[in-house]
Structure formats: structure tokens, C-alpha cells
Amino acid sequence: MTHTPRDRSQCCQTIATIVISGLSFLLLIQSASPTFALGGAKKSIDGHVVDKEGNGVGGVMVSAIDAEQRKWTSVFTDPNGRFSIEGLRDVPHSLRTRLMGMTDQWLSDVKIGGPAIQIQSEPATGRDLELQRTADSAFSMLAFEHPRDRLNFKMMCSYCHQIGTLGFRTPEEPVDWQTMIRRMDGFGGLYPHTQSTIVQRLMETYKDDAVNRWPAFDPPPPPTGASAAATITMWELDEPLEGSFHDLEIGVDGRVYAVNISKHRMIALDPKTGKQTPYPFPARTYAPHSIETANDGSLWTTMCASGQMVRFDIATEQFEIHSSAEAPKRRGNYPHTLRINPQDPQGLIWYTDAGTNSCFSIHPQTHVVKEYKLLSAGQAVGAGRGEARGVTPYGIDYSPVDGMIWYSKLNANRIGRIDPNAQDGDVKEWNPPFRGPRRLHVAPDGMVWVPGFGSGVFASFNPSTEIWTVYELPNAENQIPYALNVDKEGIVWICGTGNDTINRFDPTSETLTEIRLPTRVSYTREIEFDDEGNVWTSTSGPARHMERGVGAVIKITLPKSLPTEGSIRLRPKTYQGSHEIGNLATAPHVNRPSANAALLAKIDQRTLTKSYLSQPHQQYVDAKMTTLPEPKRSRIGSLWNEFRQSHPQRQRDGEMFVKILDHVATETASPDQPRRFIKKWQHHYFGNAAERLVGRDIEAGKRVFEQATCSRCHAIAGEGSKYGPDLTEVTKRFTGSKLLQQMVNPSTEIHQEFQTQQILLSDGRLLTGLVTEQNDTQLTLIPNLLKPEKSVVVPIAEIEHRQIAKVSSMPVGLLDTFTQQEILDLLAYLQSKHEVQQ
Ligand code: HEC
Ligand code: HEC
Fold first, then answer.
1. Calpha distance 316→96 (Å, rounded)
2. 572-589 pLDDT, tens digit each
3. Which ligand is nearest to the CA of 770?
């Protein structure tokens, strides 16, 4: 037996479960008990889950898996441990049982309508138990000095993935965490004091054996009653390690359309046949985000990275592309969420743009775009205290009562309302008494329901009384409810984005029912309903963080009448619209020590220059800013933020800003100053600059080669590391833009001798890495090139399947913290070696 150095790799689990039919299980398959021996006609799988003593175990999720359709049908056992899974195709299924606190049991080749099956469950301990920990618990292990810092971290780091899960814990060396976090904090929103300590703290909490020091996972009690009443159908979609679905929509053709934001395609799933059809979005449209059905039955999608609105005609399967901005602008900034009021005779498509302080509508026939300017600082009801500077129009919906358009502003911490009948929209905004209003919805009775992503709450806002009613989710401080939706009956459905659940809230009884989803790391962002009242969602985030390495579309079906037991009663808190809480409701402002306190004190001593005193403040600032390169501008931003946080009483001190500006303008960069994200570079952003390298700074390029860690894997002219190809050789094949493309997108073309291999072992483990040696009996593989000493020897006899991965083992994003100038210098350096050689 060989061991992967990190056998907690997410892929291992994925494959282990895919190859189940080839494995044998420690299961007791007993003959039918008389009560379950039904006639052959019944299309169900029935059984009984028992513990060691033979007592039934309730609340166990039992899933029947139809491998061909990639479809999972899951039910929960009743209090006696009995289950019956109906509506299955007449093909052999695999069966999985799951209950937190118990190990999963797997059975293969289970026949439909066969005798009832008895499955014995075993308590989970040690690593098995640890694997079941939900992200909200893993996140709670990360300590913060102050709730305010926790809020900030949640807002900045958990809107793409859960924190603390197995996949999240994969970086190894400090440098890997560092690279990762710099890439992630591209939006630069972490407080400076958090930025300077976070790598250390993430490592202390999550790296390697840090997990062994956590208190053992304490599994929540098994679901009962209403929380164990659902049938959950799940279809895994798209390619392994690529499938990840931001939003979904039920089309008028009955198919479910889910958008893959990073692969620029949507997958249409026919739930009846399980057939999946991929539709790539047209060329030059990027990042499909949100998808809705327009009143003519076509589907509209916001293309957030390319600033367009795309229409898809279901009947002809044709796409149309429109700018999301008002003419003559040719593209919008970041069209985000869209909604269409089915009662609107014009059928306008309404959407937010997260990069502009505006909402928009586009006419479905004339394609005329209308922009509604939203309010700015200090203009909201209840605004003022702790208002954030970011704006970020976000969720949007229409009121079925009066057709008003409601939206949220994530970072400004507002919700707002547009009157579509007023010329300028007669915009009004309110500040919720919690942090992070994300994707809101208006209920059939006109109440506006809003999830509080940062605070772990959800709330209703009554437009006529302006009263907020706020409910905390259980374990609120570690929850991140991304979206909610309200069904025809007025039931509110809330994403349990941080703990792999969907929550049902009945506003009349104020009870919350938590419904567990079938797989771990199910990051949900949207909830939809079909005509029969079923609830739909999709799972997103990095596919390789997900339990099975691929995302899914999920349908939840509840029985007509729901057991009264199994839900919890929530206690509301109410606030007037003009409340004094501010958006830092759960976190009062404090003076805190600043990492650059000494430097800021020195800067404060500076005298203001004559040229500043002789002109208007803003004019000076604007003129000076335009002369500075981007890294300096962001350094000014972070010093200023730090100053404001350490001197709350001097918050509007414009002169201090100018002193910081002047200081940074003349400061020479210190080499150990942390690098900040600049851009997710693509080679075409450089135009043909990459072809004109004459006169570039070769020495500076050499420094980038070191700083960007290239030298850890590559040799130049035969000197240095050999985990990647010798770059002097490479520059004989690629130069200029082509070479740049290989650097920013290593998977474009993978060097023959350095292909990553995926090796599936007969015990179900999947190893991925570079094969460095091989003979007739064994091969040596390095899973992580940044950690070459951790190689694995694999006996050839244990290899079940072996394939070349389509992904390069060179990390992506290495150059994202470097400027265009630095990258061009690096190119020049690489090519200079080649020229010297010849
Ligand atoms: C805009 C989306 C986004 C945000 C915001 C984000 N991440 Fe990530 N993160 C990703 C993606 C995508 C991956 C998967 C790895 C990859 O694609 O390289 C990832 C992976 C990770 C990993 C695991 C490493 C791995 O190899 O998968 C860590 C650790 C991490 N992120 C930390 C953070 C921290 C800390 C923050 C906040 C500063 C953050 N992330 C914010 C998108 C994001
Ligand atoms: C962790 C190891 C690692 C690091 C760090 C790394 N590379 Fe690579 N690189 C590789 C491997 C392995 C390949 C071969 C696979 C491929 O072609 O994608 C490669 C391929 C390349 C290629 C394409 C070669 C070809 O023939 O297709 C270029 C160019 C390149 N790297 C440049 C760089 C530069 C510049 C940096 C620093 C910004 C860098 N690499 C950092 C491992 C690394």
C-alpha cells in the first residue's frame, strides 16, 4: 500500500465514490423482512437502517444513485429506521446512507423492487468524523480579536467558497498560503490589520495537523419530522472538476438551465430523462452569472465580466448579445442579478450592475437600456453610522403587489426601491440593521425579505411601516446565507450556504426547518421554484472543493402536509427603519492598534506642500493620483484605511489623506512590502506590447523571476530547478505574446514531458502529479511541485487507470500581483537568455 502525502485530497473522495461498483462493502444484506416483501411491481428500494444492537436509526439520509443519469434520489429514514425510495428507473442503483456521527455505508447493484435491505450503521470516529464537519464549524475555529474583523473576513473571503473545508486546507507551505491569499484578496477589502496577520492565522488554524488540535466535531442531532420529510433529487452536471453552477432557472420547456460562470456555458438538464445538453455562450461574452425567463419564454443571462445581456431563444437555440449599458456605451461594468415581472406588459428585464451605482432595465424588443441612478453616501434612511464606501448593487426583485423594483447594495449595506413609473425612478434607500444584504425577494404580500450574509441572519422589511423584523439563523456568526426566495404560499427559503443546507421558514409560525443536502461543500446561491412547488437550487464554488469534485442541480420535494415537529422556533428582533444601529450592528467601532502606527505618525508630522495649499483639495488629489501607478494608489488606499480605523475620531481628515498621498508618491518600494492583486492577467490585455521588448529592464525582469517563484520550478540556460521545462529551451519555441500566454494560462498548451498524470489506484485513491521516474514495477510521482521532497512511489500493479490531466501542474495566477511593466521586464529577461545563448 502506498500513501498519498495528503490523502485528504478532494479528488480521492470523488473517485472513491465513483468507483463504488468495483468495491466490496462491509454491509449486511439480509433477506426481506415480511413487512417489506412487496410485489415485484413496486418501483422502489426499501430497507431498514439499524445500529449494532439492531435498533432502527432515524434521520439517516439514504440515497439511491442512478450512475448513468448521474441522478441521486434521497430520502430520510423514519424514527424506526425504515425508508422507501420511490420513482426510480428500473436499473440497478447504488445506495449510500449518511448521517452525521455515523460512517457512510455504500451498497452497489441494488435491484429495484427487490427485498427490503437491512443496513447496519457504524459510529464515525477520528478522521471519519472529522470529515463530516460542516464549514460553519470549521470557520468557527478561526479566531478573531473582534466581531468586526470576523464580519469583514466573512464579507471578503466567503462569497466564492466556504472557509475551512478540506479543499480549502490544501495549501502547504507558507508561500502557498501567501500566494493563494494574495490572489484571493484581489478585491483588497480585508482590513489592513487583518491582511498583515491572516496568512499566519489561517495556517495556525488550517494547515496540516492544526486540525488535530480542534475539538472533536460534535454532530448535530439527527433530523426528525419536518426536517426529515423531504425527497431530494440531485443531478451532477458537467465535467468533473469543472462543473460549478452560479445560478439556475427552470425553462418553459421544463428543462433546468444552470450557468457555469467560469466555463462560459450553460447546461440544460431534462429532469425526465436526465439528459444534459451543454450550450457554450457566444464568443466574446464572459462569465454568465444570473439567468431568468422573460415573458416571451426566452432566457436572459447577465454576462458579468463582459458587460452584456444575452438572450437565448429556447426554440431556435440562438443567442443574441446586447450591451448592458445605456447607448452609446458599448458595455456595462458588471451586470449582476436580473428579474422580470410576469405582470409587466412591456416585460422589461431589470438588473443591477455591481460595478456602477445604478440599476438598469432593458426592453426585450427594442433593446433600449434605461439607467436609474441610485443614491449616494448619507442619503439612505438610517444611513450614516458605519456606512461602507463600497456600493455594489446586488440582488433585485419586483413586488408582485405594486410592481416596484427592490434591490440591495451589498457593500453600501442598503436596500432600495425604484418606482418604474417615475421618470427618475423616485429612488429611496434604507440601511438594514445587519451586515451584507445579498439576494433579496419580495413576498406575495409585498414584504421584502433580505438575507444578511455577513451577520448570518435574514429579515423582512415592511415597505409601509418601514419596520425590520430580523431572525438569526442557528450559529449565526458562522453562517453566510447568500440568497433567499419566497414561494407562492409565502414560505421563505434560505440558502444554508455555510452548512450544506436549505432552510424553510414559515413566517406565520416563525419556525425554521433545516433540510440537509446530499453532499458536503454544497455552496448554494440561488433558489427557484417550479410550478408544482418543488424547490430548486444549484451548487457552486471551486469544483475541486466540493465533496465529489463536481456541482449539481438539486430539487427538494416536500409532502403536502408537513409534520409539525422537527423545526425550531425563531425569536424575531424588530427595528424601526430609521434605527441607529448602522451597518455594523453586531460590531461596534473600536480603536485598534495599527500595523503601520509608527509610519503613520511620521507621515502625520509632514507639512502640507505649497502646491496643495494653493488649489482646491480635490483638484490636487485627482491630478496627483493620475501620475501614480496602480500599486502606489492601492498602497495609499490601504494606509488611509488603516489610519481611519486606528483614528476613528479623525475619519474625515482630508489633510491626512494628502499627507499619505504625498508620502507614498515619493516613497521607494520596500522589497518585503506585501504585493497586492493587480489583475487576473490574460495575454491579450497586453496588445502587441509583448512583441516590443527592446530597451526593457532585464535586471528587474530577473527579480520578478525570483519574486513570482518561477525559479522554484524552472531552470534558465540549464541552471536551476527542473520541475518545469528549461525556459531557455521554451523561448526557442515561444516568444512575445505566445510566451506570455503560456505564463498566464499554463494549460493552453502543456509541455509534452511535463504532463500531469491522474492515477487511479485499485483501492480507490486518486493521485495527481508529475511522474518523474518509472520502471516495470513502480513509478515515482510528485503531487505538488512546490513540495518536491514529498514524492510517492506507486507499484504499477496497483494502478487501475491512468490518464493525462488536461490541467498544467504549473500554478495559475502567479503574475496577478505584478504590473504590466514588471511582466514585460520578465518576458524580456527570459528572451534575453535565449538571445545570449545563440
Ligand atoms: C472571487 C472569488 C474568491 C474570493 C473572493 C476568495 N476566493 Fe479563495 N478561492 C477561489 C477559487 C476559485 C479557489 C480554487 C482554487 C483556484 O481556482 O485556484 C479558491 C481557493 C482558496 C483556498 C484553497 C486553495 C486551493 O488550492 O483551492 C484558500 C485557502 C482560499 N481560497 C482562501 C481565500 C481567502 C483567505 C479569501 C479572502 C481573502 C478568499 N479565498 C476569497 C475564489 C475566491
Ligand atoms: C510549481 C512549479 C512551477 C512554477 C512556480 C512555475 N512553473 Fe512554469 N511550468 C511548470 C510546469 C510543470 C510546466 C510544464 C507544463 C506546462 O507546459 O504547462 C510549466 C510550463 C511553463 C511554460 C510553458 C512551457 C511549454 O513548453 O509549454 C512557461 C513559459 C512557463 N512555465 C513559465 C513560467 C514562469 C514565467 C513562471 C513564474 C511566473 C513559472 N513558469 C512558474 C511549473 C512551474
1. 40
2. 999 998 887 765 544 444
3. 2
Low-confidence residues of the chain, pLDDT below 50?
Answer: 1-40, 186-187, 585-591, 836-838
pLDDT for res 646: 74
Architecture of domain 230-244+380-412+426-582: 7 Propeller (2.130)
Ligand nearest, relative to CA of residue 808: 2
CB neighbours of 832 closer than 8 A, spacing ≥ 6? 698, 701
Phi, psi of 84 (to 5 degrees): -145, 120
Residue 636 is predicted with a pLDDT of 86
CA nearest to 768, candidates 753, 754, 756: 756
Residues touching ligand 2 (Cβ under 6 Å) are 708-710, 712-714, 723-725, 727, 730, 739, 742-743, 746, 749-751, 754, 785-786, 808-811, 814-815
Q: Look up cell 508620502; give the residue.
A: 663
What CA–CA distance (Å, rounded) separates 118 from 140?
37
- Radius of gyration in angstroms for the set of CA atoms belonging to the chain, rounded to a whole number: 28
The domain made up of 31-124 is a member of CATH 3.40.50.300 = no
The 3-class secondary structure across 481-495, one letter per residue, is CCEEEECCCCCEEEE
Q: What is the Cα–Cα distance from 394 to 767, expressed in whole angstroms?
A: 40
Give all strands (DSSP E) within 237-334, no chain letters: 248-250, 256-260, 265-269, 276-280, 288-293, 299-303, 308-313, 318-323
* Closest residue CA from atom 38 of ligand 1: 185
What stretch of H or E contains 128? helix 126-130
Which atom of ligand 2 lies nearest, measured to the CA of 750?
Answer: 17
Instruction: Kindly give the pairing relationship between strand 318-323 and strand 535-540.
Output: unpaired
Q: What pLDDT score does 185 carry?
A: 60
- Nearest CA to 233 out of 564, 486, 538, 548 is that of 538
Whether residue 214 contacts residue 126, with contact meaning beta carbons closer than 8 Å, is answered with no
d(CA 526, CA 234): 15
